[in-house]
């Protein structure tokens, strides 16, 4: 078209000679290309399709105007015109002025009305039951091709409801021949574009099209003829075919002829199964991508349909699925199966306030895919899936003609009510019965034929358990049962009665040693020992001489855990050589080899001191390395200790767990109750959050938070101390775990403990499943081989069980599989449950597997000199792709803290540092502080303290601060404050940046660059502090310091190691480090 024609004001993309914009669109995805152009060119543009202009409109204001049926009528052109080869003058492909369109439209209004829907409902249930029965019979590892099965569902439904024909798609491995012919025909029609010489290379396609159309017509004609033979059946049948064969158009007094009835049936089969199958497929995809939506969908289905899957849903129940309907409508918004429709002006028109002129008959495409994402209607994030867009309030407030998945006016889809009822019923029956898994983490790829639908979308399902459905629907019964007396808890096998005393002691800050001690104490109690479990500090000066003593202890930066400090100090006093002559003991140490200098130091010290003072070591000290397979190392050690213990005490019973033992917990559903109060463990108290701000700027893709905490009355701290925080597990993870076991987080239960067993979880009190999983247990710890063994014992599936057992054998191959697939990828028990849905692990067994949720320690990043009633912590928010490959890993406490806001409460306690990480009392003592990233935290407190001392008149000794981060403009934490300290003479600031324009530099490189200054201060008696990553950073820093010492002294590596170890012994090289990733 020339630039002077009436379309000149309408934008258009560049075009090529002859073909114009014909090749501007991807032949496989033309509608998606149009949507892309709409974003680039705006709400209206035009294309030159080999000399024929097509106007594309996607903006709501213009679509609203173009929806006036007096001015614009449906245009059956392009691909839709070519569909007439199959649909003839059926409702979908007829021109509005064709006589058969009005005749058929008038006749078919009744069989698509509300009363007719009620008569079709049993047939819809019939087909939906075939779908769910097929899925129920699948093996757990079998995939479901969602589009295939939804196509089978919708085709069979329209076949049975429309003309009493059963395609029996669920009883065949392929599609029915009619469907195969239909799909081939539509593919050929969509491939036809009118390009030069196209007729030559599509000759075979066109012959096949003619053959396919002849076959489909013949089949439908036979169905019509068969019905004609039986006049009584024709009168009796209340389906669509019956209505077409007997209905009379009131306007003309005429009936439909058999040829037109054929075309209507073809039309119903095309439109009825292509569109609804796409809708259902997209809705399933959306729910799997939005767990919060899926949760609400389950809740509604279980509330409306109830837990009995054998009870057929009624028509009225389906009409009560309001949220399911919102999901379907929102799916139609984002992925309308019919993504565009054509109209044309009845006469010359001006639209857009006189801005755009359209000639009579101009082909205008309403791009529904763009209309449904118009920000002026759907807000600033129109691509987001949100069923609340179709709440009653939202729909009432929305302008008309903003949502048009069914077309416009009298030419809108006559079967929209049929499709929505069918889809709601199908989704409801699927959700009532199955848990669906997006095992491939599918991302939407749309395939375009006559409609759009997901391409290659596959899922897995497992049947939901009865109690899972009851979790939503059975609460009334649960409440009733809660008032009944509690049944006695099973006691399992008879408990041996030898009552040999066994004292199990632990020293633990992070919970690992305590968890192992609790596990052993419980096992000992089941096997007849008179067991006592306690912290080491409770037995200062009173180790028993009867029975045995088992000690589980960790080290914390070379110091004893908080609950073992007094015990360790007591061992270091002037004890008699035979102080423990009658004590029989064994020690297992927990540690992390990332910091070798202090690895196992406290367990080793306890073992040495007990033996040195006469105690009998029942078995060699065990070592568990958190950097490796700690639980496996414990199991190996304990397996060798058990027979020795049995022999030592002259017992005839094993030290084993029996299959006859009652489970630790019995779970009783109860009515919601406000009685339960969980008492914080470890002395923690509520503390108020005063502020929470981001320290990194917007250019960074990471997060570090500065969090201000108000201390309770009477609490105090010193620089270098830690704040021990009890975290909470991520709500999304808690929800997923609860649902895996058939609960909602709000469901209330009561735990009862087996007789003679020791429990750490709240027993006897009402507690919600969500609170239990949020506040009490670790959900992300790496699965141990023992736990995987238990999972295998609770798996019957012949495919899953060998996979789990493959990790737990004694052979090197099993050990390597465990290390590479579980340990290296940090897979938790829940990760494995998600990977292996056939595992039938009971919830009570899962709870027994889990450790108590341990507190996390944060260096306090402030000084009490500023304000004694508050402190701050600095935390890097740990978040990134999970090593397991399953979604995003979120650090428990850092993400919990990052979400706290001013006024929120956290449970915490100040813990005194045990690693000598203190400022010296003498302010003249030189300091060397090394802390990259959040390792800076304690040094910020040090510097604030030094500034306060200086303000009070003290003279300060020299201090070096080596700080490292990625980029000076992104994560230079407290940059202005640190620069201020340097300017005021509080410290000398040296910064290393590993990103940006300068060469990559780390703190160890700065130490080497400043070696003269560093050595000078060390010679003056400086204390060197290192805080941060103990896996890589601290060893590199130590290596740099040792290199400086070798250079200055002329000594060798051994001498340098002795030198730095001596600094550590004299608290002149002190560490506050954590495990490296």
Task: Describe this structure as you would to a colleague.
Its cofactor is heme; FAD; FMN. Its EC number is 1.14.14.1, 1.6.2.4. It comes from Tardiphaga robiniae. Residues 682-920 form the FAD-binding FR-type domain. In the N-terminal section; belongs to the cytochrome P450 family. There is one protein chain. The strands form nine sheets. Strands 13, 14, 15, 16, 17 and 18 form a six-stranded parallel sheet that branches. This protein has a six-stranded antiparallel sheet with strand order 25-22-29-20-21-26, covered by helices on one side. Mean pLDDT is 87; it is low at 1-7, 471-493 and 671-680. The protein has five domains: 79-433 and 440-468, Cytochrome P450 (Cytochrome p450), CATH 1.10.630; 501-648, Flavodoxin domain (Rossmann fold, 3-Layer(aba) Sandwich), CATH 3.40.50; 672-727 and 855-914, Translation factors (Elongation Factor Tu (Ef-tu), domain 3); 782-848, Up-down Bundle (NADPH-cytochrome p450 Reductase, Chain A, domain 3), CATH 1.20.990.10; 915-1074, 3-Layer(aba) Sandwich (Rossmann fold), CATH 3.40.50. It contains 40 helices and 34 strands. Helix content is 41%, strand content 16%. The relative contact order is 0.07. The two termini are 64 Å apart. Helix 24 (565-571) links the parallel strand 15 and strand 16. It is of the alpha/beta class. Helix 7 (146-163) packs antiparallel against helix 13 (258-289), helix 10 crosses helix 13 and helix 14 (291-305) crosses helix 20.
């Amino acid at each position: 078209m020339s630039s002077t024609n009436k379309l000149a004001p309408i934008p258009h993309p560049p075009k090529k000679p002859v073909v114009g914009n014909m090749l501007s669109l991807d032949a496989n995805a033309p509608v998606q290309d149009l949507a892309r152009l709409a974003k680039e060119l705006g709400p209206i543009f035009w294309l030159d399709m080999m000399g024929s202009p097509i106007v594309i409109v996607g903006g709501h204001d213009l679509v609203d105007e173009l929806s006036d049926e007096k001015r614009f009528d449906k245009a059956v052109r392009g691909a839709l015109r070519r569909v007439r080869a199959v649909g003839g003058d059926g409702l979908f492909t007829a021109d509005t002025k064709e006589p058969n369109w009005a005749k058929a439209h008038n006749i078919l209004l009744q069989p698509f009305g509300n009363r007719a829907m009620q008569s079709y409902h049993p047939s819809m249930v019939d087909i939906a039951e075939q779908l769910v029965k097929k899925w129920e019979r699948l093996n757990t590892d079998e995939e479901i091709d969602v589009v295939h099965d939804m196509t089978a569902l919708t085709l069979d439904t329209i076949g049975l409801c429309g003309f009493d024909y059963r395609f029996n798609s669920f009883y065949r491995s392929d599609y029915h021949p009619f469907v195969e012919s239909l799909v081939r025909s539509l593919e050929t029609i969509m491939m036809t574009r009118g390009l030069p010489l196209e007729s030559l290379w599509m000759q075979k396609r066109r012959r096949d099209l003619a053959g396919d159309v002849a076959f489909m017509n013949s089949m439908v004609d036979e169905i019509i003829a068969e019905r004609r033979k039986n006049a009584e059946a024709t009168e009796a049948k209340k389906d669509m075919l019956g209505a077409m064969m007997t209905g009379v158009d009131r306007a003309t007094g005429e009936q439909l002829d058999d040829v037109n009835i054929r075309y209507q049936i073809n039309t119903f089969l095309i439109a009825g199964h292509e569109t609804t199958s796409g809708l259902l497929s997209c809705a399933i995809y959306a729910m799997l991508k939005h767990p919060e939506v899926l949760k609400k969908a389950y809740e509604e289905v279980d509330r409306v349909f109830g837990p009995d899957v054998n009870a057929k849903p009624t028509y009225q129940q389906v009409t009560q699925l309001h949220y399911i309907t919102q999901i379907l409508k929102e799916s139609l918004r984002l992925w309308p199966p019919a993504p565009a429709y054509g109209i044309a002006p009845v006469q010359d028109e001006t639209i857009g306030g006189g801005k755009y002129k359209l000639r009579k008959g101009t082909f205008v495409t309403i791009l529904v895919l763009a209309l449904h994402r118009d920000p002026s209607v759907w807000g600033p994030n129109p691509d987001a899936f949100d069923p609340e867009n179709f709440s009653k309030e939202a729909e009432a407030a929305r302008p008309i003609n903003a949502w048009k998945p069914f077309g416009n006016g009298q030419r809108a889809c006559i079967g929209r009510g049929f499709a929505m009822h069918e889809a709601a019923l199908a989704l409801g029956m699927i959700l009532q019965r199955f848990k669906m898994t997006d095992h491939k983490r599918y991302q939407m790829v749309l395939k375009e034929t006559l409609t759009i639908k997901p391409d290659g979308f596959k899922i897995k399902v497992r049947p939901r358990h009865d109690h899972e459905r009851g979790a939503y629907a059975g609460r009334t019964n649960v409440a009733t049962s809660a008032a009944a007396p509690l049944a006695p808890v099973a006691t399992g096998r008879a408990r041996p009665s030898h009552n040999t005393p066994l004292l199990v002691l632990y020293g633990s800050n992070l919970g690992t040693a305590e968890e192992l001690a609790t596990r052993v104490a419980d096992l000992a109690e089941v096997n007849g020992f008179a067991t006592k479990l306690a912290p080491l500090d409770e037995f200062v000066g009173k180790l028993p001489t009867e029975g045995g003593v088992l000690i589980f202890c960790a080290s914390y930066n070379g110091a004893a855990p908080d609950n073992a400090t007094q015990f360790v100090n007591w061992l270091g006093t002037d004890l008699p050589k035979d102080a423990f002559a009658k004590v029989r003991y064994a020690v297992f140490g927990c540690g992390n080899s990332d910091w070798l200098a202090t690895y196992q130091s406290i367990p080793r010290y306890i073992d040495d001191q007990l033996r040195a003072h006469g105690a009998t070591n029942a078995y060699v000290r065990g070592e568990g390395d958190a950097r490796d397979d700690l639980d496996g190392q414990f199991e190996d050690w304990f397996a060798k200790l058990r027979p020795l213990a049995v022999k030592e005490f002259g017992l005839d019973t094993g030290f084993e767990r029996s299959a006859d033992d009652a489970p630790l917990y019995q779970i009783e559903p109860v009515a919601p109750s406000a009685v339960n109060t969980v008492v914080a463990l470890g002395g923690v108290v509520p503390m108020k959050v005063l502020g929470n701000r981001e320290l990194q700027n917007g250019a960074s893709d990471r997060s570090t938070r500065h969090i201000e905490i108000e201390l309770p009355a009477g609490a105090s701290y010193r620089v270098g101390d830690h704040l021990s925080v009890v975290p909470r597990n991520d709500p999304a993870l808690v929800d997923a775990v609860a649902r895996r076991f058939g609960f909602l987080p709000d469901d209330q239960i009561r735990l009862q403990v087996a007789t003679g067993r020791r429990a750490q979880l709240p027993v006897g009190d009402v507690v919600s499943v969500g609170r239990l999983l949020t506040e009490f247990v670790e959900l992300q710890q790496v699965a141990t081989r023992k736990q995987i063994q238990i999972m295998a014992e609770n798996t019957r599936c012949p495919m899953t069980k060998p996979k789990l057992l493959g990790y737990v054998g004694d052979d090197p191959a099993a050990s390597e599989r465990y290390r590479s697939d579980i340990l290296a990828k940090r897979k938790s028990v829940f990760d494995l449950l998600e990977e292996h849905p056939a595992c039938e692990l009971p919830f009570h067994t899962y709870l027994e597997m889990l450790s108590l949720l341990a507190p996390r320690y944060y260096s306090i990043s402030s000084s009490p000199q500023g304000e004694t009633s508050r402190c701050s912590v600095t935390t890097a928010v740990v978040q990134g792709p999970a090593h397991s490959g399953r979604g995003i890993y979120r650090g428990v406490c850092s993400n919990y803290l990052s979400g706290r806001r001013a006024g929120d409460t956290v449970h915490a306690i100040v813990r005194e540092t045990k690693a000598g990480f203190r400022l010296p009392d003498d302010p003249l003592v030189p300091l060397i502080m090394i802390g990259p990233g959040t390792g800076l935290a304690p040094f910020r407190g040090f510097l604030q303290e030094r500034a306060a001392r200086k303000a009070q008149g003290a003279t300060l000794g020299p201090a070096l601060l080596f700080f490292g981060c990625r980029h000076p403009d992104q994560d230079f934490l407290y940059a202005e404050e640190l620069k201020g300290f340097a300017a005021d003479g509080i410290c000398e600031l040296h910064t290393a940046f590993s990103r940006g324009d300068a060469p990559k530099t780390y703190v160890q490189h700065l130490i080497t660059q400043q070696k003269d200054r560093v050595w000078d201060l060390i010679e003056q008696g400086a204390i060197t502090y290192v805080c941060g990553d103990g896996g890589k950073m601290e060893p590199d820093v130590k290596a740099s310091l040792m290199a400086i010492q070798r250079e200055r002294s002329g000594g060798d590596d051994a001498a340098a190691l002795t030198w730095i170890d001596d600094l550590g012994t004299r608290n002149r090289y002190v560490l506050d480090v954590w495990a490296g990733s």
